[in-house]
Amino acid sequence: MKKFIAVLLSILVVMSFTVGFLYVEYDKTVNKDTIYNGISINDVDVSGLTKSEALEKLKNTDPYGDNTVELVYGDYDFNYNFKDLGYNPDYEYAVNEAYQIGREGNPVDRYKEIIELKTSPKKIMVDKSLKEENINNIISYLNEVISKPAVDAKLNVDHGNRTITPEEIGYSVDNEAIKSKLMHVLPNSSPITIPVHEIQANLVASQYDTIEDNVGTYSTNYSTSIPGRKHNIKLSSEIINDTVVMPGEEFSFNKTIGEISIKSGFKEATIIINGEFDQGVGGGVCQVSTTLYNALLQAGVQIVERHPHSKPVHYVPEGKDAAVAIGVKDLRFKNNYSLPIIIESTADGNNITFSIIADRESKI
Fold it and tell me: What's the rounded Cα separation, in Å, for the pair 177 and 180?
C-alpha cells in the first residue's frame, strides 16, 4: 500500500511539473503584448514589436516615404510627393491585422496558430499602388500650364500697308505617355522629362508673301448718283477695304458694314422697297454689295448667300446683282482658298471697284 502511494505521489509530482511547464510555456508563448514571431508586413519583419513600434518601423523603412517626383520640361519644373500621386498605404490597418494573428479562438487553437508561425510565417501585404485619379489631376494641371494650341500667322492690311503677326508654335502634353511614367515611377528616380509634342501652325508668315494675285476685279459706275448716295457708297467702300478673310472663314457683308443709320454716318438716298423706289438711310449700299459680288464670282469663292433685287438695277446686267438689307438679306461667302484673301476697294466719286487679292495657286 505504501509502495502504491509512493508511486501515485511520484506521478502527481511529475504531472504537476509537466502542467506547470506547459503553463509557463503557454504563458510565455501566448500572453504577449507584442506581435508574434513570424509575421511581416510588406516584407518588413514586425515580430516582437508593439503596435506603435511596428507602425513606426513601417513608416521609417517605407522607400517612398517623403520622396518626391520631379517633372521637368524646358523651364518648367514640378515637384510632387508620393502622397500627391495617391500613395497612401494603410499601415495602421495592417498592424492591427498582424497583432490579431494568434489572438482569436480557444487557447489550444491560439497556441497552435502561434507555433505554426515558426514554420509557416504570415506575410501581410499593404496596397502601395498609386491612384489613377490623383495622377489624372496632375496631368490636367500640366496641360493647363504647358499645352496650348498653335496660332496661325495673322495678316492685317491698313490703307494697303500689310503687317504680319508671326505664327506661334503650339504644345501638347502626351497624356498617355506621362501617365504611364507616373503610374510606374519608383522612389529616388531621376527627374522625369514630360513628353510634349510641338504643334505647327497651319499658316506661317512666310506664306503670306505669295498673296499677290488679283484673282477677281469688278467696277460699277455711280457718277450720276445724288450726293447722299455717293457718300454712302464711298463710306461702305472704305469700311470693307483691306478686309482679310482667313481660309475657311465666312464673310458677311452686313456684319462687316455694321449698323446703317444716320448715327453711324450714312445718309438718306434712293432705295428700292418692294419693287418701288423710295427714300431711306443707306441708299447706294446695294451697289457696293453688288460690285463686290461680281468680283467674288471672278475669284471663284464659295457664295453662301445672295439675293436679287425686287426690281432690276441699271449698274449691272440682270441676274448679277446682290441686294442687302440688315436682318433680311445678306451677301455671304466662304474663303475656299488655303491662304487668306484680301478685299481691296476704292470709290472715287465716279466708279467703285473691288479687287480680290490672293495666291492663285492656293485655290482649293
Answer: 5
Helix (H) or strand (E) holding 278: strand 276-281
Task: Spell out where 117-186 has E strands.
Answer: 122-124, 154-158, 161-165, 170-173
CA distances 281 to 162, 284, 285, 290, Å, are 33, 9, 10, 18
The mean pLDDT value of the chain amounts to 89
Yes or no: say if 39 and 55 are a contact pair by the CB < 8 Å rule: no
As a whole number of angstroms, the distance between CA 57 and CA 44 comes to 8
For cell 495666291, what's the residue?
Answer: 359
DSSP characters over 318-364: TT-----BTTTB--EEE--BSS-EEEEEEE-SSEEEEEEEE-GGGB-
Task: Please give the single-letter amino acid code of residue 189.
Answer: S
Tell me how far apart the alpha carbons of residues 199 and 58 are, in angstroms, rounded to a whole number.
Answer: 47
Q: pLDDT (tens digit, 9 = 90+) per residue, 251-298?
A: 999 999 999 999 999 998 777 666 566 677 888 999 999 999 999 999
Nearest residue to 122 via CA among 145, 146, 103: 103
Q: How confident is the model at residue 17 (pLDDT cuts 50, 70, 90)?
A: very low
Q: What percent of the chain has pLDDT over 90?
A: 75
Q: Give pLDDT tens digits for 154-178.
A: 999 998 899 999 999 999 999 999 9
